[in-house]
Amino acid sequence: MTHAIVLVEAERQAMSTLGSALAEVDGVREAYSVTGEWDFVCVVHVPRHEDLAAVITGQVSALAGVHRTQTMVAFEAFSRHDLEAVFPVGE
């Protein structure tokens, strides 16, 4: 499984609708509206590294209202939630 964080800068007129459109893209696990230089952050999970292009370039970047994106591919994933499912933490 490959994980990536995608930062999205939106065009002003798309701010109210782009979040839900991002969340509907296959491969986007979560989409957040955020403060700062970027308008949205997407968490992408795909089965293979090669699938990232289809999700990010083919779908996310192609959405109406997306001005630009920046993608960060994760080397490893660390999640307290995932660890607690396997090893009860704090018991």
Describe this structure in words.
With 91 residues, the protein is α+β, with helices and mostly antiparallel strands. The chain has a single domain, classed as Alpha-Beta Plaits. It is globular and about 40 Å long.
Keywords:
91 residues, alpha+beta, Alpha-Beta Plaits, four-stranded antiparallel β-sheet, 3 helices, 24% helix, 33% strand
Order of helices and strands: EHEEHEH
Strand order of the main beta sheet, please?
A: 2-3-1-4
Strand content: 25-35%
**First CA to last CA: what distance?**
29 Å
Level-2 CATH architecture? 2-Layer Sandwich
Tell me, briefly, the overall form: globular
Count, helices: 3
Biggest sheet character? 4 strands, antiparallel
Q: Mean pLDDT, nearest integer?
A: 90
Uncertain spans: none
Q: Give the proportion of residues in helices.
A: 10-25%
Secondary structure elements and their pairing?
Elements: E1 2-10, H1 18-23, E2 28-33, E3 40-46, H2 52-60, E4 66-73, H3 80-86
Antiparallel strand pairs: 1-3, 1-4, 2-3
Summary?
By secondary structure, the chain is an alpha+beta fold. Helix content is 24%, strand content 33%. The model has no long low-confidence stretch (mean pLDDT 90).
